[in-house]
Amino acid sequence: MNLDFLIAPLVVGIIGTVLAGLISLIDLIVNNYGEVKLSINDGKKVVTVKGGAPLLSSLAEHDIFLPSACGGRATCGVCKVKIKSDVGPYLPTELPFMTQGEKQKNIRLSCQVKVKANLELEIPEDLFAIQKYSTTVTSIKDLTPDIKELKLALKDPNQISFKAGQYAQLIIPPYGKIKQFTQRAYSISSSPSDRTSLEFVIRLVPGGIATTYIHTLLKAGDDLELIAPLGDFYLRESEADMLCVAGGSGMAPIKSLLFDMYEKGITKRDVYYFFGAGTAADLFYIDLLKDLEKKWRTFHFIPVVTQMDSNDKWKGETGLVTKPLEDFLAAKIPKQNPKQAYLCGSPGMIDAVIKILTAYEVNKDDIFYDKFS
Ligand SMILES: Cc1cc2nc3c(=O)[nH]c(=O)nc-3n(C[C@H](O)[C@H](O)[C@H](O)COP(=O)(O)OP(=O)(O)OC[C@H]3O[C@@H](n4cnc5c(N)ncnc54)[C@H](O)[C@@H]3O)c2cc1C
Ligand code: FES
User: Fold this and answer.
1) Ligand 2 pocket by C-beta < 6 Å: which residues?
2) Which of 78, 102, 108 gets mutated to test ligand 2 (max ligand atoms within 8 A of its CB)?
3) Which domains does the chain have, with CATH numbers?
4) Is this model's pTM higher than 0.85 or not?
């Protein structure tokens, strides 16, 4: 039998296999950076890591945690670090997050820079307070059709210290088709006075890695690791009127802020909390905040429902959360009072609220926010 017709595909196959092998070999040789030293703050701390991995995860292996809200996907821009050594030009993924001043100081996104040689870094001392904690799920329950409340107990002998408004990175283990550990940011909704357990409010993002795990697989008794405390969304001391605006799970850090203020007796300034929900079924913690309003004379809670159903019994404000905010700014909150704003939720909502606040002459420097993106 003449098998000539097989020769060509066979040769192509062999060449392909040899080339693939060569590429793997070259990759192994070229990308084998061996052991690399990271010298932090003029050699006060030196760690040895295996070269080739991103700086963010290389540091984390030695329990040095830089802030990170997106889990290394170059979408949050908070994992900035000053690198004194030359690590090559900025990557296109870094540039949108860098100001001219930061570029001059060689500030880089640590999740994007790969460790290929010894590096000198500058890390602010207060970041060394960020730690990894082991926890156990104590409860997980529905607050709305797509929002769950998650309560975690820190494993003994851990106690956490954080500022109300800050967030944690929950570490989601591999499951199903997800083969790697994934980290996502979630604001702590409990008060910092509780140092042994943490509460979170988590909205399901359809198809989302972390929220699918939390909503469908995680259960009471399971272990979960997290990194905390992170973020600069916290109360700034002031006597100015305080405007809080949150949508959906954006409730989390605002709840923590308000209960912390009440517990500490920071109750003199006027506080207005506008909380937006899509439908009446999406409202939650309403009784809890109404009770707080009864106890706290200068706290005003204004929940708002965007879409009303003919069967809904909701008697409160309706429309977008920006509507009562504008009404209050126009007629109910004295114009001459200095104001500070704390916003939390989707980027779209936050941008819309900032527009209104600045139109009412709230100083941009007095507007603090966490965009849940
Ligand atoms: C500082 C900070 C604090 C946060 N706090 C909270 C919190 O308290 N509660 C909470 O529920 N979430 C919070 N988030 C959002 C959270 O970190 C995740 O981004 C979100 O839960 C989606 O994660 P995932 O892994 O399920 O989805 P992914 O697997 O990351 O995303 C799946 C798909 O959904 C899209 N997507 C991602 N996030 C959203 C979103 N929020 N809305 C619509 N589409 C999205 C992605 O672009 C992707 O296409 C916070 C984010 C930040 C930056
Ligand atoms: S961790 Fe989000 S950009 Fe680096």
Assistant:
1) 68-70, 72, 74-79, 109, 111
2) 78
3) 35-127 (3.10.20.30), 130-230 (2.40.30.10), 241-371 (3.40.50.80)
4) yes
